[in-house]
Amino acid sequence: MRYVFAALAAVALSSPAAAEGWWRAKTNHFVVYSETSKEQAEKLAVNLERFDQVMRYVRGMSLESEEVPDSAKLTLYQFGDTDDIGELAGSRGVAGFFIPRAGGSVAFVPARQPRVRGSIGTRDTDDSFSGVVLFHEYAHYFMYQHAPAAYPRWYSEGFAEVYGTAQLTESGFRMGGAATHRADVLRYLNTYHVKRLLDPPERMDGEDGAQIYAMGWLLSNYLSFSGERKGELEKYLRLINAGQTSRQAAEQAFGDLDKLNRDLDAYRRGRARIVEVKFPNYKPPRAEVRALSQAEEAKMRLHIRSQVGVSKEKAKALVDDARRLASAHPRDVPVLRAAMEAEYDAQNDREAEALADRILQIDPVNTDARIYRARIALRRAKTDPKQFAVARKEFVAANKADNENPVPLHGYYLTYLLAGETPPKDALIAVERAYEFAPFDPGIRTTLAHLMLIENRNKEALNLLGPIINDPHPKPGKRLTKLREISKQIEAGNKTEALKELAPKLDDDKEDEDDA
User: Fold this and answer.
1) For residue 81, what are the β-bridge partners?
2) Which of 31, 341, 484, 495 is least buried, going by the fewest C-beta atoms within 10 A?
3) What is the DSSP string of 268-320?
4) What is the C-alpha to C-alpha distance for residues 196 and 186, in angstroms, rounded to an integer?
5) What are the angstrom distances between the C-alpha of 259 and each of 18, 122, 193, 217, 235?
6) What DSSP element (H or E) covers 31?
């Protein structure tokens, strides 16, 4: 599951101009690496933390959340300009993108606008647009982290648009304002009926795609803030997750859809219902900020490309840089970690394992080194089944070092399943715990759905597959089509094909991540 504004690809990045160096800002739920200034890095991290508080408040959750382990934090990289982000994403004009995954969700945004011909220097990125982009994508992540369920696409995008337009104030926030960046599309709502939004055709055209965001925002805003249809949205979502189609659920929850369309049009023409909240005795969150060391700065470009995900062939192009860095900084763990990942991605398992061993000599409880040793063992298990036990041992050690990291929990379960062994009770508990920590990760979701089918818990399996099938930004390909087909088969009581399709495969290089 990837929330992006373009397809992802790993490519060389140009060096940004006028950077002040790299800074790291850390809060309870975020880590920001920013190639700007200490003040800007701190501001970005604090605003992200404040937006998380907004989400928690509206969802009825406590604002006083404790700090989560680094493996559970969203890491955001702010560097270069929109051209650099576009190159990294493989598409020009990309304003930022976001990859939610177990053990390390990441996001990428520009530090500046691109240089304009005829101008002198560069300008800072438009904070208002960058805020909408980043808040929209984090809203998706938050939804699937704290309320995972099957959501129709109009609501998934509408929900994210509503939260994406939230404005932080000195002691709280405002929400419900107009989505001005959707204004052009909203002008044509009088020719687009809400029935089509709620029951879109299998093959949507460009207008359908645009209205998913624009009309999706309007309907979500109306149902949430107008006060005219209290409880109807909640009923609609309950019916969806009980197995009804979007159209069936809408007719039961909203009633006459022609009337809903008229009401929605009247709401569009009226004044925005802005909700403002001020927290009593509010103290804004704080961020720990420090400058990166010379070694840490040196590895950032390599690290960023690896974090996006690279194919084996593209990873090979990074190996020389990785080795030079590791040679220049032989005892710097972040550098060695970046080099280890590059070697692993290039399938240089001996070199990756040697780097993992060097890391463990310096930091005996390093979780990442244990995880990569386990992954290497799983690769070797293709020809040497004894390596399953090695991988299992490494995942257990990684779990002891960080017992809230979902990757070792998931991997521990897989060492039994992939070996053709019956998982013991503690392995079953482990994969369920992995899901609790990372419900947004599709690999963990499908693994758990497979287990539910084995245990004849078909309805729970369908609930787990729902968010993947209704992914707001699906990765195109046969996989999604296949998942939709097997879901229909499960509903009909036939799970044979589903068990085969959902079963984890030993050929998967990174069992906990999407394909690069």
Assistant:
1) 112
2) 484
3) HHS----EEEE-TT------EEEEPPHHHHHHHHHHHHHHH---HHHHHHHHH
4) 15
5) 56, 50, 11, 18, 18
6) strand 30-34
Nearest of 342, 256, 245, 328 to residue 293 by alpha carbon: 328
Burial of 6 (0-12, 13-18, 19+ CB in 10 A): middle
Q: How many helices (H) and strands (E) does the chain have?
A: 22, 9
Please tell me the distance from the alpha carbon of residue 431 to that of residue 414, in angstroms, as a whole number.
Answer: 9
Query: What 3-state class would DSSP assign to 59?
Result: coil
The model's confidence at residue 180, banded by pLDDT at 50, 70 and 90, is: low
Residue type, 414: L
The crossing angle, in degrees rounded to 10, of helices 127-146 and 38-58 is: 50
| Residue type (1 letter), 180 | T
Cα–Cα distance, 358 to 376 (Å, whole number): 15
pLDDT at 3: 47
Provide the 10 A C-beta neighbour count for residue 187.
11
* DSSP reduced 3-state for 11: coil
List the end-to-end C-alpha distance of the chain, in Å, as a whole number: 12
In angstroms, rounded to a whole number, what is the distance separating the alpha carbons of residues 467 and 488? 15
Torsion of CA 11, 12, 15, 20, to 10 degrees: 60
Write the DSSP symbol of residue 507: T
Nearest to 135 by CA among 72, 24, 53: 53
Q: pTM higher than 0.90 for the full model?
A: no
CB atoms within 10 A of CB 33: 23
Question: 103-114, pLDDT tens digit by residue?
Answer: 888 988 888 765
Most confident of 95-99, 105-109, 270-274, 476-480: 105-109
Quote the tokens at residue 114.
């691109």
Percentage of the chain surpassing pLDDT 90?
A: 49
pLDDT in tens, 454-504: 999 998 998 888 878 766 566 656 777 888 889 889 988 999 999 999 999
Give the Cα separation of 333 and 495 in Å (integer): 46
Beta-strand (E) ranges in 44-184?
74-81, 97-99, 106-112, 167-168, 172-175
User: Which CATH number applies to 23-119?
Assistant: 3.40.30.160
CB distance 110 to 80 below 8 Å: yes
Residue 242 pLDDT grade (very low, low, confident, very high; cuts 50, 70, 90)? confident
Q: What's the Cα-to-Cα distance from 496 to each of 7, 63, 415, 454, rounded to whole Å?
A: 33, 45, 23, 10
The helix (H) or strand (E) run that includes residue 490 is: helix 478-491
Distance, in Å, from the CA atom of 200 to the CA atom of 204, rounded to the nearest integer, reads 7
Question: Mean of the pLDDT values across residues 148-175?
Answer: 87
Helix axes 206-225, 153-164, angle to 10 degrees: 60
Q: 109 pairs with which residues across the strands?
A: 78
Is the pLDDT confidence value at 390 over 50? yes
Beta strand 23-26 with 167-168: parallel, antiparallel or unpaired? unpaired
The span from the CA of 94 to the CA of 3, in Å, is 12
DSSP-assigned beta bridge partners for residue 174: 167, 276
